[in-house]
């Protein structure tokens, strides 16, 4: 069954017909071509599909698209710094070599964007807890934490 | 694609009840972090959903003039932990909510879904048992208010009828005032892990902080449903806070729990956890109540 829904995706108002059985991850990937949204497990365990809905991180694989009616959805494709380049957190991932295969990266970046909204700084242990909804098979997390610490750390390394 | 037939969008809990009645094949969904997984696994395939997701009326947080705190069942774990009323009056409940899953699951999953799924592992359930929470269920015949102690009937089962909506969770003033508490969850990992065992303790001391005035001990995964250890509590009430208190707790709780072996842990290990987490949670609760030098210890007497 199709339903027309309205949402703001990456700053643009979209109106589209979706199947009521669709997850937001499927809609973003298959209907809107936003393939930064990765599907790892499909059951809320890995965080690869993390996007922001009204500024809050959710696993889009277990979020029905119809729930996003009237909401703002943000994916990595919607990130841009003032000069059109990478955002500081994206640059920090590159500088700290926090990316290997890259499958977990977009989800982690979205968690970082959510944190940047709070304007707070965090200890490494707090950051560990804050990224605990993401699985990374490659990096062992240390470089990811280094990147997070560079942006949100209590004593940011320069 | 989820294997579901239809989704209904009620505007109010009353309308949700009517929709559930009209379609026998329908179930409630709120955050969806259980229901959608069950659909994915095929255990609920082909159902229709009546969606309470984000329903404003079910997200109300309020403290009445008599001190009763109302918790909206559709409040997410994150919103609960951050809520000013919870921070001021029910911090142990916020602590329990903070142990669920990971950040994204806490942004989606709700406290109402946590108890209505009937799971013994539900992290907020044992704390709500310690708090003597009362649950308001709205059905076709109107509302009924029941104690959480009468809610669970077995693993994954509760007295809630399919067409009943949980509309309010109530905690009375005498169940939180001057009470200090702790929730300890044991899992193989610190995050994204269902509890191997969970323990919620609340305690109230006398004014000079040498005796237990009131105590509540509740466990998750120590039995087919979340449980309270009423007899142990009775035996500990009024006792001086000393080594004998903890020894007694470790001994007495064992007659009230009935843990099982599962792929997560053996029965023997769970029994060890029951004793250990019980003592540790009580020590933490007492430390928060202002009892000096109480955190160390534990593990001495197996
Ligand atoms: C990756 C992952 C990790 C998890 N980790 C944990 C964990 O650590 N600890 C834990 O306790 N749980 C955990 N869970 C389980 C789940 O997130 C929680 O139980 C959560 O509280 C469910 O809430 P929900 O709103 O998402 O429930 P839903 O899936 O929407 O509903 C759950 C059940 O409650 C019923 N229901 C929901 N709201 C109402 C209402 N207002 N009135 C009547 N019935 C209602 C539904 O019909 C359904 O039977 C995890 C789940 C996932 C996917
Ligand atoms: S794909 Fe959504 S959490 Fe794994
Ligand atoms: S870089 Fe490969 S999963 Fe994280």
Plain-language structure description:
The complex is a heterodimer of chains A (158) and B (302). Chain A has 158 residues and is an alpha+beta fold. Helices cover 29% and strands 17% of the residues of chain A. Chain A has 2 domains: 2-76, Beta-grasp domain (Ubiquitin-like (UB roll), Roll), CATH 3.10.20.30; 88-151, [2Fe-2S]-binding domain (DNA polymerase, domain 1), CATH 1.10.150. In chain A, helix 2 crosses helix 5. Chain A starts with a strand and ends in a 6-residue tail after the last helix. In chain A, 45% of the residues are buried. Chain B has 3 domains: 4-51, Uridine Diphospho-n-acetylenolpyruvylglucosamine Reductase, domain 2, CATH 3.30.43; 56-174, Uridine Diphospho-n-acetylenolpyruvylglucosamine Reductase, domain 3, CATH 3.30.465.10; 191-292, CO dehydrogenase flavoprotein, C-terminal domain (Enolase-like, domain 1). In chain B, helix 9 packs antiparallel against helix 10. Chain B starts with a strand and ends in a 14-residue tail after the last helix. The chains are: A alpha+beta (158), B alpha+beta (302). The structure holds flavin-adenine dinucleotide and FE2/S2 (inorganic) cluster (2 copies).
Write the layout of secondary structure elements.
The complex is a heterodimer of chains A (158) and B (302).
Chain A: E1 2-9, E2 12-19, H1 24-31, E3 50-53, E4 56-59, E5 72-74, H2 88-95, H3 105-116, H4 124-130, H5 142-152
Parallel strand pairs in A: 1-5
Antiparallel strand pairs in A: 1-2, 3-4, 3-5
Helix pairs in contact in A: 2-5
Chain B: E1 4-8, H1 13-22, E2 26-29, H2 35-40, E3 47-51, E4 61-63, E5 69-71, H3 77-82, H4 84-89, H5 91-97, H6 103-108, H7 111-116, H8 123-130, E6 134-139, E7 142-147, E8 152-154, E9 157-158, E10 165-171, E11 180-186, E12 197-205, E13 212-220, E14 227-228, H9 230-236, H10 243-252, H11 267-288
Helix pairs in contact in B: 5-8, 9-10, 10-11
The complex binds flavin-adenine dinucleotide and FE2/S2 (inorganic) cluster (2 copies).
Residues 39-42, 44-49, 59, 61 of chain A line the site of one FE2/S2 (inorganic) cluster.
């Amino acid at each position: 069954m199709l339903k027309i829904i309205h949402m703001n995706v990456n700053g643009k108002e979209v109106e589209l017909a979706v199947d009521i059985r669709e997850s937001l991850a499927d809609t973003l990937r298959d209907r809107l071509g936003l393939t930064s949204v990765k599907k790892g497990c499909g059951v809320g365990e890995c965080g690869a599909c993390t996007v922001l809905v009204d500024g809050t991180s959710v696993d889009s694989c277990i979020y029905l698209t119809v729930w996003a009616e009237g909401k703002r959805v943000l994916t990595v494709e919607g990130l841009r710094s003032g000069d059109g380049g990478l955002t500081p957190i994206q640059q920090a991932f590159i500088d700290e070599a926090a990316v290997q295969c890259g499958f977990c990266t977009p989800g982690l970046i979205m968690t970082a964007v959510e944190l940047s909204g709070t304007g707070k700084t965090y200890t490494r242990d707090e950051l560990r807890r804050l990224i605990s909804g993401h699985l990374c098979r490659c990096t062992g997390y240390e470089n990811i934490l280094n990147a997070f610490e560079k942006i949100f750390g209590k004593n940011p390394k320069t | 694609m989820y294997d579901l037939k239809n989704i209904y969008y009620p505007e109010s809990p009353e309308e949700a009840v009517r929709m559930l009645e009209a379609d026998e094949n329908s179930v409630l969904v709120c955050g969806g972090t259980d229901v959608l997984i069950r659909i994915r696994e095929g255990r609920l395939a082909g159902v229709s959903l009546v969606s309470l997701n984000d329903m404003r009326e079910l997200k109300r947080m309020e403290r009445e003039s008599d001190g009763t705190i109302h918790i909206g069942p559709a409040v997410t774990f994150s919103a609960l932990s951050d809520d000013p009323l919870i921070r001021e009056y029910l911090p142990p409940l916020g602590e329990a909510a903070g142990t669920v899953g990971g950040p994204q699951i806490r942004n989606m999953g709700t406290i109402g879904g946590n108890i209505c799924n009937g799971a013994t592992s539900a992290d907020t359930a044992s704390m709500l048992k310690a708090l003597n929470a009362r649950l308001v269920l709205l059905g076709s015949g109107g509302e009924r208010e029941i104690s959480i102690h009468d809610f669970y009937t077995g693993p994954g089962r509760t007295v809630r009828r399919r067409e009943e909506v949980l509309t309010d969770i109530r905690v009375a003033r005498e169940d939180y005032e001057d009470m200090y508490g702790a929730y300890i969850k044991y899992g193989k990992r610190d995050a994204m892990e269902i509890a191997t065992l969970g323990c919620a303790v609340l305690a109230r001391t006398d004014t000079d902080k040498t005796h237990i005035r009131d105590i509540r001990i509740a466990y998750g995964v120590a039995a087919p449903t979340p449980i309270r250890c009423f007899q142990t509590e009775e035996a500990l009430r009024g006792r001086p806070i000393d080594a004998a208190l903890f020894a007694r707790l470790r001994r007495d709780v064992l007659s009230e729990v009935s843990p099982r072996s599962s792929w997560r842990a053996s029965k023997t290990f769970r029994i060890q956890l029951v004793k250990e987490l019980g003592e540790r949670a009580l020590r933490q609760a007492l430390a928060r109540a202002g009892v000096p030098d109480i955190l160390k210890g534990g593990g001495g007497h197996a």
